[in-house]
Design a protein that fits this description.
Blueprint (H helix, E strand, L loop, with lengths): L3 E8 L3 H12 L5 E5 L3 E7 L4 E7 L4 H13 L2 E8 L3 H10 L8 E6 L6 E8 L9 E7 L17 E8 L3 H11 L3 E8 L4 E8 L2 E8 L10 E9 L2 H10 L8 E2 L6 E5 L8 E5 L4
């Protein structure tokens, strides 16, 4: 059904600003650029285990109007999770049985004007009320896909380690990501010192982390996509690179996961709370 996380989506007003910010943050250039006649411009950074798509409104088409409305409603930042599927038709039937109310499957394509290459895919959206406020899609790429990962320098981001989703209702969220979406629960841990309950769902060599503030109690508020944690092969070199690029970064410190080191990027991330993590075995 779901085989991985195909990509995460950040929406911002200017594609040039988004491309510049994340080229500098990730230490690599975009692997794909395209535009949609409905009113958007897109750049994609393909990583080892997922991709980052940045999208901005362009012109006055219906998609541009939706993107402007999205920015006006809840600001610039992380907007959607797009999961990968090897059989979208089967996934749609399963999601329908599990009351996720998927839309009809639609086909998509894009052409990179710099390379002249084309990509094709099919995708569907799940009902936002059924996913408790998080925009979730499922997508199947058509093979062969010219968008492929190219290894970068040791100080460049190579993969996404985890996505953080804040939830006011951990049991509700666990039922969605575990029972209904079919992700594997790897760890469920509460720590009073952190005032947090954390649940880690594994999918496609990365983690969807559900975070619940214990002192806040349980409520019915929507879940919220919150932050991203990126892996780098050489965290010391990455810290030097980002410091030289004038990002606000914290000192490197031990991570909560044994054997890891981390630092926080405080600015320049399009309002996405961001952690850089040293690469370590799964």
């Amino acid at each position: 059904m779901i085989t991985g996380l195909d990509h995460v989506l950040i929406v911002c007003p200017s594609i040039d600003d988004g491309e510049h910010a994340y080229s500098a943050l990730l230490g690599r250039g975009p692997d794909w650029r395209s535009s949609d006649p409905g009113g958007s411009s897109t750049v994609i950074f393909q990583l080892d285990n997922t991709a980052l798509e940045i999208m901005s409104p362009q012109g006055g088409g219906p998609l541009a109007r939706r993107l402007h409305a999205m920015i006006e409603q809840d600001g610039v930042g992380l907007k959607s999770l797009i999961f990968a599927s090897a059989d979208l038709g089967d996934a749609r039937s399963t999601f329908d049985r599990r009351a996720l109310k998927p839309d009809e499957i639609v086909s998509g394509e894009s052409v990179d004007p710099f390379s002249g290459k084309a990509r094709y895919w099919s995708r569907m959206r799940l009902d936002e009320q059924a996913t408790h406020g998080v925009r979730i899609f499922a997508l199947q790429r058509k093979s062969p896909d010219p968008l492929i990962y190219k290894a970068g320098k040791p100080d460049a981001v190579s993969r996404l380690d985890h996505v953080v989703i804040n939830t006011a209702s951990p049991e509700r969220a666990a039922a969605l990501y575990g029972a209904r979406l079919g992700l594997r629960l790897a760890l469920d841990r509460s720590n009073p010192d952190w005032d947090m309950r954390l649940m880690f769902f594994r999918v496609g060599q990365l983690t969807i982390e559900l975070a619940h503030k214990i002192s806040g109690g349980t409520g019915n508020q929507p879940d919220k996509l919150w932050g991203l944690s990126w892996r780098v092969p050489d965290i010391d070199a990455a810290h030097r690179r980002l410091t030289a690029a004038n990002f606000g970064v914290t000192p490197i410190r031990p991570g909560r996961r044994a054997g890891t080191r981390v630092f926080t990027v405080r600015d320049g991330t399009m309002n996405v709370p961001t952690l850089i993590l040293s690469a370590d075995p799964d």
